[in-house]
Design brief:
four-stranded antiparallel sheet, five-stranded parallel sheet, 11 strands
């Protein structure tokens, strides 16, 4: 039986203006932004939509009562600052999801890459929009504050399988696999010198390219364990409802339905490998043959095509994309 999966991108997909057309034309999408701004305590719309932020505010963010901004001031760099990127990207993806659901399109299962996991859990009914935003606001702060100096991430591209775990383990210093994205693409993370050494070894072993990523820290590595511990403490007091859709965890790459297990895995996720390829393979094995990427960009769409070319992959970033999706289903 044919099954649909909603998938959500992670940090790095953000761009100024994402979900703006849905905000302007869909009441349900606008309501998501309004709820998110109330939960965050500042204007999500300001950061998401404005090229510049008011210079009068030293933090670069207006109060939640000012949604549009003057268009004059300092360049908007907040959208790329982890503590703001996470709630803003979450909100944009959930606003697009609201329009998709309004169109009557429903999923059987859901997963998200890193931050996108919170979108997936909200889509599955485990979190409200407000709760998801509040958690992710703190997650972004914990991750930003935990970033040690000298951390780095590098994408390893290869046309053949590589002993990436063994090479990382044999490399002096802290370096490990952060992401299993798709065949031929993994990401390593850790101390910069160790990441560079491991990348050099992987090139010698047959990797075609090693591409340093423009990130602010060694995410999804044990160096972020402190942030994960703070997040776990926060989540102890957070209601997490049993997902109504089949949900897959980044940490295990497999289905998880128990709320307490989800709670524990979310705490571990910050410093654990993201097993995205394994998640996709498990969804396909469970009958998913149509994947809909909801949010800015087509990163997960491109991964899916490399994981299994037989599945149907669509993405929704604009109202035009949504109309194409409606016609294709």
């Amino acid at each position: 039986m044919s099954k649909i999966a909603f998938i959500f991108p992670g940090q790095g997909a953000q761009r100024i203006g994402m979900a703006r057309e849905f905000y302007d034309t869909c009441e349900e999408s606008r309501a998501v932004f309004e709820t998110a701004s109330e939960a965050a305590g500042y204007s999500i719309e300001e950061i998401c939509f404005s090229e510049t932020l008011p210079a009068k505010d030293s933090d670069g963010v207006q109060s939640k009562d000012s949604a549009e901004g003057s268009g004059e001031g300092i360049p908007n760099t907040k959208i790329h600052q982890t503590r703001y990127t996470q709630p803003v990207l979450l909100t944009a993806s959930l606003a697009i999801l609201a329009a998709v659901q309004k169109a009557g399109i429903q999923a059987d299962m859901t997963a998200g890459l890193s931050l996108g996991e919170y979108c997936a859990l909200t889509a599955a009914g485990s979190f409200s929009v407000s709760d998801a935003v509040k958690i992710v606001c703190q997650r972004g702060i914990y991750m930003e504050e935990a970033v040690p100096t000298g951390g780095a991430m590098t994408a390893i591209l290869s046309r053949k399988p590589l002993p990436i775990e063994e090479i990382c383990a044999a490399t002096e210093g802290q370096v490990s696999v952060a992401n299993y994205n798709c065949p031929g693409q993994q990401v390593i993370s850790g101390e910069k010198e160790a990441v560079d050494r491991a990348a050099a070894k992987l090139l010698e072993a047959g990797a075609s390219r090693a591409v340093p990523l423009k990130v602010s820290g060694p995410f999804h590595s044990p160096m972020l364990a402190g942030a994960g511990e703070k997040l776990a403490a926060l989540l102890e007091h957070q209601e997490i409802r049993q997902p109504k859709l089949s949900f897959l965890s980044n940490v295990t790459g497999d289905f998880v339905s128990d709320s307490e297990e989800i709670r524990a895995l979310l705490g571990r996720q910050v410093s654990s490998s993201v097993r995205w390829q394994q998640s996709m393979e498990h969804m396909i094995a469970a009958g998913a043959d149509t994947f809909i990427e909801i949010g800015p960009g087509q990163t997960l769409t491109n991964f899916a095509k490399k994981i299994d070319r037989t599945v149907k992959v669509l993405h929704v970033e604009t109202p035009e994309d949504l109309e194409k999706l409606r016609q294709s289903l």
